[in-house]
């Protein structure tokens, strides 16, 4: 199932200068600088998990993947046909012992009467939506954030199957996958939003929160945009923390003309100030299930043996708007790749 495919990106990140230069197939020294080589290896060429259940008959969409005590867990968004809107989605659960072979367990949590023997963990279809899940570890539990209506919701769980304390924590119109990085004393929350003076242009922004049970959020500051390139849009933040001094973002660039989503790469030392090249397509579209759209899961899983980070993504062979024309196509699949990061001198 796995075909070793290499895509090498040499990225010179100049944290002490106001500009940054991007090069392929060569490294140029700029001092003082912090240089990193990012290499994509072991990318899947066929889906590890794909839509095949009645409640997935339109598509699966955003995913979030964690590794806990050697076991892999996935939460993903699923839509039954016909697609209505973002409010018609459910959140489902799958697991794997090796990160490659995935199972959709029969949970029967009795959250819906529409589907028998299902793996649905949050019923959004009958409750105003459960859109774009993101799961992270928080104080010994798992915490999920997702969109419902015009608000972002949160819930907690011990094992990721039964969720409780589900409530809105922010009435904010983020219409794609938001994600959280837990820092000492606060949470960084990354969202997509619109410029007030440019309502058609969407970008990624950052706010912070001290506690979910007593939310007081600061204003959103912009961190990533499409470089004011006409015909492009930032589709999701996709921010991940690799270590205390290295954050990466893999937002998908929405090409309106090609109806495609292609992940880029941005790098930061603090999770706030990112260096980004909107013209550079970091992860190229594939040849199979991921040949039209790719959306990165904003979780990274470190592999000590391979000395790299596993990154999962949702891919589809249908365009963003093209998907709306179809029903019962069971669109979308999950792939992954290993991200190797080697510091320069």
Q: Which helices and strands, and how do they pair?
A:
Blueprint: E1 7-13, E2 22-23, E3 34-41, E4 49-50, E5 59-68, E6 71-79, E7 89-96, E8 102-103, E9 120-122, E10 131-138, E11 141-148, E12 151-157, E13 164-170, E14 179-183, E15 186-194, E16 202-209, E17 221-224, E18 232-234, E19 239-243, E20 246-249, E21 252-255, E22 260-263, E23 266-268, E24 274-276, E25 293-296, E26 301-303, E27 308-316, E28 333-343
Antiparallel strand pairs: 1-2, 1-3, 3-28, 4-28, 5-6, 6-7, 7-8, 7-9, 10-11, 11-12, 12-13, 14-15, 15-16, 16-17, 18-21, 19-20, 20-23, 21-22, 23-24, 25-27, 26-27, 27-28
Detailed description of the structure:
By secondary structure, the chain is mainly β. The chain has a single domain (7-343), classed as Glycosyl hydrolase domain, family 43 (Tachylectin-2, Chain A, 5 Propeller). 0% of the residues lie in helices and 46% in strands. It has strands spanning 7-13, 22-23, 34-41, 49-50, 59-68, 71-79, 89-96, 102-103, 120-122, 131-138, 141-148, 151-157, 164-170, 179-183, 186-194, 202-209, 221-224, 232-234, 239-243, 246-249, 252-255, 260-263, 266-268, 274-276, 293-296, 301-303, 308-316, 333-343. Strands 1, 2, 3, 4, 25, 26, 27 and 28 form an eight-stranded antiparallel beta sheet that branches. Strands 5, 6, 7, 8 and 9 form a five-stranded antiparallel beta sheet that branches. The model is unreliable at 1-35 (pLDDT under 50).
